[in-house]
Each structure stands twice: as structure tokens, then as C-alpha cells.
């Protein structure tokens, strides 16, 4: 599938109708979502025939993109019931088969590394401090192959240090810098749209196959 | 919920040291056909916990998987891989619960979605 085609399919998905501020529910736009998955597939081979997990799936854009690019199984996780309903409607609309789990990523316990690749747009941690790092920590435990994630550019040094030193990543690379439009969903945003710089990261976990995590 | 997901989830209640595998309470099981991909299945065999899959598939009413983890000679047989395919990917727990093996706490499964959220005093 071509990048343009992927982007256009993702553009038809429904987005949050009543976003919850405390959960940082803003959609990963089709532009960013399509590039993230397209790069993962075409530059690194981390999507087709793999088990891909979408952490904090929200509207389900990243998981849907993975399924469209040929992931063998897609698992999508969110803490919020309405997000999961929305994401499953979106999956149905595109006739995609996605496995949903309701959980708090911060305290999920997993056995082993069944998942190959994690893709995520975690909450940036502006409402609940450190939740972005919780997501990254868990993602690096469960993925056997790679983790793709978006983090604010202003946190770049911190993210790199935490990934390599504390979360057992063997590599941490910024693939590109993107502009993320956080629409004026929230009253405390004064401007119509807040444009923040985010990094698209690729992390490679160290192997720890078979261990109970 | 596919048994692939079941094979990966563990009870996450504070203080629980042996949270895997989760027991299964069945209210409704459904089957959905998916494409058969032998290479994918062979790769999954290296990652799944065999006994947990066998027991879980039996709870869902499917008793065709052998008790013992398959020998390498069996792995290439079409018959075996089709059974594995069915158990791992085509059976779904649509309604029911997952049960923590240590505490008996139930995690509900509704519309095929397991709810692993914890109460405040379980975190
Ligand atoms: C920035 S949004 C992700 C948007 C998503 N990628 C999409 O395409 O719409 C963050 C998501 O993480 C979820 N979330 C927030 N905290 C969470 C937690 N502790 N565990 C699991 N999900 C969480 C929110 O409900 C929200 O859907």
C-alpha cells in the first residue's frame, strides 16, 4: 500500500467526540500515524507478518494502520471504555480484525515477549507526570523487536537517557521531528491549536526472551 | 478474546506472585475464521506457553491439542498446525471472565474485551 493511500484511509476514521483531559485524549493524526507505520514497515520490516501492539490506542489509528500494512495480529490497549468502543467501531469500518484489552498500561503484567513491535502515541505526561515514561518502560519489556513512539522534542535527552540506562534499550534513535497539532480540545488551551514539536523514536529492546516480566 | 491474548496476560494484582495462567470462565465462545499462515504459527510456537494454551483451549471446548508440547518432527505437519491455528487464533472468549490463579479475583470479558483494570486497593 502506498503512503498516500494509507493516510487517506486513516483520515476517514472517527475521532474522540468527548476527549478526556486527564487521559490526554487527542488523536494521532493521519499524517503522523501513516508515516510512523510506513517507516516501521518499509525501512525496518517491523510490521507485516508481526504481532503489533498499540499502547493507549485511543481512536485506534496506529493499530488500524498496522493492520492495513499487513500485521498478522494487532493488539490494542487503552484504559478507557469509550476509547475502546470508538477504536473497535473504527476497526469494523475498515474491516480490520483487532484484539482489544482494557488496562492501565502502567500496571499491566505480561508473560514473555509475544509482541514483536509496539507502536504508540503515549500521553505526553502533561497531566500525569511520568506516564509517558511508564509507557516506554513497559513497551521495552514486552516488545521483542522494536518500539516506535512519539515524545515531545523538549524531552529528547531525558528520553534517551531513560531508555538506554533504565529501560534496557540497546538503541534509541530519533527518526524525525514532527509538528503535532493538539487541537483546541481543552479549555486551558488559549490558542485554537497548539503546535508542538515531537520526535518520532525507534527503540530496540535487549533480548530477554522467555522471562516472566 | 483470542487465546493468543490469554497466553500473554497475567494477573496484575499487587502482591500476586503467580499470576499466570489466568483461569477461564466461559459464558459464550465464538469462532471466527482467519487466514492460515504456517510460518507465523511456527514462530509463535517458540513464544507461547504450551500448557496454558492446551488448558485454555479445553476450557473453551476444544480438545484437539496434544497434552505435551510438540516434538520438532510434528511441527511441520499440516494437521498439527491447523489445530494450533484454530486454538490460538480462531476461538474467542466473547463473554465470561479471566480468573486470577492465586486470589480467585475475576476479570470480566465483555464483547470479547478483557478488562484488566484494578481497584484502588489492588494496585
Ligand atoms: C494521545 S492519546 C493516543 C491517541 C491514539 N494513538 C489515536 O490514534 O487516537 C493517549 C491515549 O492513551 C490512553 N491512556 C492514558 N493513560 C493511559 C494508561 N495509564 N493506560 C492505558 N491507556 C492510557 C488515553 O485514553 C488515550 O486514548
In short:
Chain A is of the alpha/beta class and 213 residues long. Chain A has helices at residues 3-11, 30-42, 61-68, 81-93, 131-142, 156-166, and strands at 51-55, 73-78, 99-102, 109-110, 117-120, 146-152, 169-183, 193-205. Chain A starts with a helix and ends in an 8-residue tail after the last strand.
Can you offer a commentary on this structure?
Chain B: GO terms for molecular function: protein heterodimerization activity. Chain B: InterPro entries: Trm112 (IPR039127), Trm112-like (IPR005651). Chain B: Interacts with TRM9. The complex is a heterodimer of chains A (213) and B (123). Chain A is globular. Chain A has helices at 3-11, 30-42, 61-68, 81-93, 131-142, 156-166, and strands spanning 51-55, 73-78, 99-102, 109-110, 117-120, 146-152, 169-183, 193-205. Chain A has six helices and eight strands. The N and C termini of chain A lie far apart (36 Å). Residues 209-213 of chain A have low confidence and may be disordered. Chain B is of the alpha+beta class. Chain B has a single domain (3-122), classed as N-terminal domain of TfIIb, CATH 2.20.25.10. Chain B has five helices and five strands, in the order αββααααβββ. Chain B is globular, with a radius of gyration of 15 Å. The mean pLDDT of chain B is 96. Chain A binds chain B through residues 49, 51, 72-73, 75, 79, 84, 88, 97, 99-104, 107-115, 144, 209, 212, and chain B through 1-2, 4-5, 7-12, 19-21, 32, 34, 37, 39-40, 44, 47-49, 89, 112-118, 123. β4 (109-110) of chain A pairs antiparallel with β1 of chain B. Bound molecules: S-adenosylmethionine.
Amino acid at each position: 500500500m502506498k503512503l498516500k493511500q494509507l493516510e487517506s484511509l486513516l483520515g476517514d476514521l472517527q475521532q474522540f467526540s468527548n476527549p478526556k483531559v486527564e487521559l490526554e485524549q487527542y488523536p494521532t493524526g493521519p499524517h503522523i500515524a501513516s508515516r510512523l507505520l510506513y517507516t516501521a514497515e518499509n525501512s525496518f520490516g517491523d510490521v507485516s507478518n508481526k504481532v503489533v501492539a498499540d499502547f493507549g490506542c485511543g481512536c485506534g489509528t496506529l493499530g488500524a494502520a498496522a493492520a492495513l500494512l499487513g500485521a498478522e495480529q494487532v493488539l490494542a490497549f487503552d484504559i478507557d471504555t469509550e476509547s475502546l468502543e470508538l477504536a473497535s467501531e473504527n476497526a469494523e469500518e475498515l474491516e480490520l480484525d483487532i484484539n482489544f484489552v482494557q488496562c492501565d498500561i502502567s500496571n499491566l503484567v505480561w508473560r514473555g515477549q509475544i509482541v514483536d513491535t509496539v507502536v504508540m502515541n503515549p500521553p505526553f505526561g502533561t497531566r500525569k507526570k511520568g506516564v509517558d515514561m511508564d509507557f516506554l518502560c513497559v513497551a521495552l519489556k514486552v516488545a521483542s523487536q522494536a518500539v516506535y513512539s512519539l515524545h515531545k522534542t523538549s524531552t529528547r535527552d531525558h528520553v534517551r537517557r531513560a531508555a538506554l540506562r533504565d529501560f534496557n534499550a540497546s538503541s534509541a534513535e530519533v527518526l524525525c521531528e514532527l509538528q503535532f497539532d493538539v487541537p483546541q480540545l481543552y479549555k486551558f488551551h488559549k490558542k485554537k491549536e497548539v503546535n508542538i514539536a515531537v520526535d518520532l523514536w525507534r527503540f530496540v529492546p535487549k533480548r530477554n526472551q522467555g522471562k516472566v516480566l | 478474546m483470542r487465546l493468543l491474548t490469554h497466553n500473554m496476560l497475567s494477573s496484575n494484582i499487587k502482591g500476586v506472585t503467580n499470576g499466570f495462567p489466568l483461569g477461564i470462565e466461559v459464558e459464550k465462545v465464538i469462532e471466527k475464521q482467519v487466514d492460515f499462515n504456517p510460518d507465523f504459527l511456527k514462530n509463535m510456537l517458540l513464544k507461547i506457553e504450551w500448557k496454558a494454551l492446551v488448558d485454555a483451549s479445553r476450557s473453551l471446548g476444544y480438545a484437539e491439542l496434544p497434552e505435551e508440547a510438540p516434538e520438532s518432527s510434528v511441527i511441520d505437519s499440516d494437521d498439527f498446525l491447523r489445530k494450533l491455528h484454530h486454538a490460538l487464533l480462531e476461538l474467542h472468549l466473547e463473554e465470561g471472565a479471566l480468573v486470577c490463579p492465586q486470589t480467585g479475583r475475576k476479570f470480566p470479558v465483555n464483547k470479547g474485551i478483557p478488562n484488566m483494570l484494578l481497584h484502588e486497593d489492588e494496585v
